[in-house]
Amino acid sequence: MDRESPPLLLRVVRSQPGQVVEEEQWSTGLCECYGDMGDCCFALWCLPVFACKTSRAAGGCVCLPLLDCVGCVPPASLAMRAAVRERYGIKGNVFSDCFYGWCCYPLSWCQISREIKKRTAALSKKQSSSPFSLKSKTRNTPLLYLDHVHII
C-alpha cells in the first residue's frame, strides 16, 4: 500500500528567544535635537564629519555620506535611514526616507544618530540584566557605545 505522508511543516524562527521585534516608530521625533545637544551642535558646525561618524556607527562605510553631493536625492541619507529603519523594525517606506533626506537633511542624520544611540543603550542594558550574562571581572561594553563621543 502506498500511503502519502502529510507534508512536513517547518517553523521558521526569525528572532532569538527573549528578543521581541515589533514594528515601532522612531524613538525621537525629527526635530527633537534638544535631547542630544552635543550631536546637534556637532551636526550644525560640521555636518559632513557628523554624517560620516553616524554612517560608521550604523555599520556603513565611513565615506558613504560623501556621495550625498551627487544628484538631487542624497543616496547615503536615503540608504542609512532605510537601513536603520529596517534593522529596528520602524514603520515607514522609501518615500518618507527620500523626503526626509532631501528636505530635512541635517535633522534626518541627527535622528538616525539618536536612534542608534538609544537602541544600543537599550540593548546593552538588556544584556547586562540578562540572567545568562557572565559575571566576571571584565566589563561587557556594547560594540557601538556612542554617548558623548565625538571624532573631533
Automatic annotation (TrEMBL):
InterPro entries: PLAC_motif_containing. Belongs to the cornifelin family. It comes from Astyanax mexicanus (Blind cave fish). PANTHER family: DUF614 FAMILY PROTEIN-RELATED (PTHR15907). It comes from the Eukaryota. NCBIfam families: A_thal_Cys_rich. Pfam families: PLAC8 (PF04749). This is Placenta-specific gene 8 protein-like.
